[in-house]
Each structure stands twice: as C-alpha cells, then as structure tokens.
C-alpha cells in the first residue's frame, strides 16, 4: 500500500466533504421520511451508494410509485457511471480483476473528477492508492452522514435548505470541467435541455440533456478542427 | 410520506437498483482490460461527459421554467455561486456563497424586507 498516495487522495477529497455531508444528511432524512428504518436506510446507502438516485428513489417510494418505476429511475440517474467508468478505465487497465471490482464499487462523481484531474496533471501519483484515498474517504463520510441523517430524522428544519448543497457540490466540480469552447457548449446545451425537460417522467430530462450536450461538444470540436485544417 | 410497501419488496428493489448501478460502474473498467486501445471516437465522446452530465444535474436545481415553482432565492444563490466557482475554482468558496446567499435571502424575506 502506498500510504502517501492514499493520504494525498484523501486530502484532495476533503474540500468536497462540505458538499457530501449535507448531501448524506438529506439522503438519511429522506430515508426516514419514506418509512425506512435505520438498517434499511444504511442498506440503501451501502448497496446503491449513489446519492441523487437514492433520494429520487425514496421520493418515489414515499408516493408508492410502482417498484419498476423506482428501480428504473434510480438506474437512469446512475447511467452516467457508464460514462465515468469508460473515462477512467484506461487508468485502471493494469490492475487485477479483483481490484477493478473494488475500484468500481466506490466510483462516484467526486472520486472520478478528483482522480482524473490528478492523472491528467503532470505530477506522478500511484493511481490505485490515490483513487482509493479519495473514494474510500467519500464512501466512509457518506455512510456516516446517512446514518446521522436517519437518526436526526425530521429534526432538521426545511428552512435550512440543506438539499441545496447538493447542486452546489456538482457546480463546484462542473466549472473546472469546462476547459474550452467545445466543453462549454456541451455544458450549456446539456444544462438547458435538462431545464426544458425537467417535467419529463423518469428523469429523462437529465438523460436527454446529457446525451445531446455530449453530441454538441463533439460537433463543436469537429467544426473547429474543420476550420483550422482548411 | 411513508411507503406502504412491505420490507421484502423494498429489499428486492434496493438490491436490484444496487446491482444495476454497480454494473454501470464496473462496465468499462472491466471491459477495457481486454481491449488494446479505446476507440478514438469513444474517447472523444468521453471528454465531454463531465461538462454535459454535471450541467444537466445542476442547472434544473437553480432554474425552472415552471413559473409557479420558480424560486428566486435558489436562482440568485446559484448564479452567484457559479460566479464564485468560475473565479476561484474553490469548492468551499462555492458552497459558502451558495448556502450563505440562500440563507440571507430567506432571512430577509421572512423579516418582511
């Protein structure tokens, strides 16, 4: 084990905890509100380990939506992990199948963003242990705060607007991902379509926005290359 | 609202969502070990994933076209936080701005200003 790399990864994850803590609390509170006991609330956080989908699933369960709709919604929100998985896969290629199975389990928006940013920078780092330092820290804090939220239950007043911390975390990792005109186009198109499609069932606005945003980024890049080349 | 589903049904739903989510996470990490190179087209697509997906997650929390549910406090707080994120690229400053502005607006509104 490379403890230096592990610690460095954990340290780089610390600023993101400011977003994870309220996020986890909200997920725990949502579980209790949906009628989950503590063991089920913890089970959800350990088994699914994906905040946005947990909260969406809990909302639907509270409304007694069909279980198929609950599962499909959770999975649709988590389809973005396919893309993170593909993006980070080249950096994990040399590891054993068993390690890959472990690394995949703790893959999150934040662990992905921190690690890929670090791998792309010039400073050398032990990839596996740096990633684990960040991802395991995020995992542990997620579990602890979900439990805390479930124990607090409905004791946190709505007026605090804790759930607003969730998009703020995503915002803080979105901005550095906009590094040129093409990625800015991807973000603007993706975000705008998601707003337009916010009323669609099954969170389709998120999926459509993401898909079309990515396409718009690729097209912008191709057009720019075409102009430069000719 | 509390769900009316019995625990066995909830366990099954959580397990299924968990397995499918894990499958998404593992997919390409497991697959690329068997591929020599990522196809350049795929790599090109992936470059735009974080910007597009994160923006699609974030923006609907700050803006809605549904006039009845438009929340001025969230819109203003989100816009200012985005400005701070842009200038500083600092997670703490972004969070502090967003939550601080949200609370300030709510406080002012509840004080009747």
Could you characterize the architecture of this molecule?
The complex is a heterodimer of chains A (230) and B (113). Chain A is globular. Chain A has helices spanning 3-33, 38-47, 51-62, 67-78, 80-92, 97-105, 109-120, 127-152, 165-177, 181-196, 204-229. Chain A starts with a helix and ends with a helix. Chain A is mainly alpha-helical. Chain B has five helices and no strands. Chain B is flat and about 60 Å long. The two termini of chain B are 34 Å apart. Chains A and B meet through helix 1, helix 2, helix 3, helix 4 and helix 5 of A and helix 1, helix 2, helix 3, helix 4 and helix 5 of B.
Short description:
The complex is a heterodimer of chains A (230) and B (113). Chain A is mostly helical.
* Largest binding interface between chains: A-B, 97 and 72 residues
Mind describing the biggest β-sheet of chain B? none
Distance between the termini of chain B: 34 Å
Q: Provide mean pLDDT of chain B, rounded.
A: 87
Secondary-structure blueprint of this entry?
The complex is a heterodimer of chains A (230) and B (113).
Chain A: H1 3-33, H2 38-47, H3 51-62, H4 67-78, H5 80-92, H6 97-105, H7 109-120, H8 127-152, H9 165-177, H10 181-196, H11 204-229
Helix pairs in contact in A: 1-2, 1-3, 1-7, 1-8, 1-9, 2-8, 3-4, 5-7, 7-8, 10-11
Chain B: H1 7-31, H2 40-47, H3 49-62, H4 72-88, H5 91-110
Helix pairs in contact in B: 4-5
Considering the chains and any ligands shown, give keywords for the structure.
heterodimer; A: 230 residues; mainly alpha; 2 domains; 11 helices; B: 113 residues; flat
